[in-house]
Design brief:
Layout: H1 3-55, H2 60-73, E1 86-95, E2 98-109, H3 112-125, H4 127-145, H5 151-180, H6 187-192, E3 201-207, H7 211-217
Antiparallel strand pairs: 1-2, 2-3
Helix pairs in contact: 1-4, 2-3, 2-4, 3-5, 4-5
Length: 220
């Protein structure tokens, strides 16, 4: 074989090996890049789960239960509490599997005065609980903002809860920002809530036989 042909063949093989090396190196780099970002996302999810678990454990479960009671029924515990919030029935959905049961959908109806009285009640007997719950959501949001927690999980897990908190505690958040000089207080609640959210819908499981009685006793 002439030397020129052999040299051309060697050059071609060298070029082919170079291309293979580049492709292999690029593929290896892509795999490493994917693994790195996958590992980082798993770390963010893990950190987020820690916050969510804390939110769903004591003392925060008790804080939320107490806060809900104060909002709907007032400061004084009672065996037969009276609703202080007007509820408007918007639908009743029978259970297909159990004709004696169903879900009653209720819309919370609040006036400006209602919100003012709710804020007063919270300041009187649930300020500590409200502050702790909101601050925990704010801490999770700060974790998301720093890139250490997962944004999608944060929104997915807390959107409906933040909707409700923002609806009932908007005045409390604004007053706390002003009085405590905490401009970012409640930032997590507002970041997680749904855009354009303007009402709270409650689903109440009821027995069909008692539905008429519930309609009569619900404040109008």
């Amino acid at each position: 074989m002439p030397k020129t042909k052999r040299k051309d063949k060697i050059d071609a093989i060298a070029k082919l090996l170079g291309v293979i090396a580049i492709v292999s190196g690029g593929l290896f780099g892509a795999i490493k890049y994917y693994d790195y970002h996958r590992e980082k996302r798993l770390e963010r999810i893990s950190h987020t789960i820690e916050f969510i678990e804390k939110y769903n454990s004591e003392p925060f479960v008790s804080y939320r239960e107490h806060l809900n009671y104060v909002i709907f029924y007032g400061c004084v515990k009672s065996d037969n509490p009276t609703l202080l919030i007007r509820l408007e029935e918007i639908a009743f959905v029978p259970d297909r599997n159990d004709p004696d049961q169903g879900t009653r959908r209720l819309k919370v109806v609040l006036t400006t005065d209602d919100k003012k009285y709710i804020t007063q009640r919270i300041h009187q007997c649930a300020a500590k609980e409200a502050f702790a719950v909101i601050e925990l959501i704010d801490l999770l949001y700060a974790c998301v903002d720093s890139g250490l927690c997962d944004k999608h999980m944060f929104i997915r897990e807390l959107r409906s809860r933040s909707n409700t908190l923002a609806y009932f505690l908007d005045d409390f958040i604004e007053q706390t920002r002003s009085s405590e000089h905490m401009d970012s207080f409640g930032a997590g609640v507002y970041a997680a809530r749904e855009r354009g959210f303007s009402e709270v819908i409650l689903d109440q499981r009821v027995n069909v036989l008692h539905l008429q009685m519930l309609r009569k006793t619900t404040p109008r």
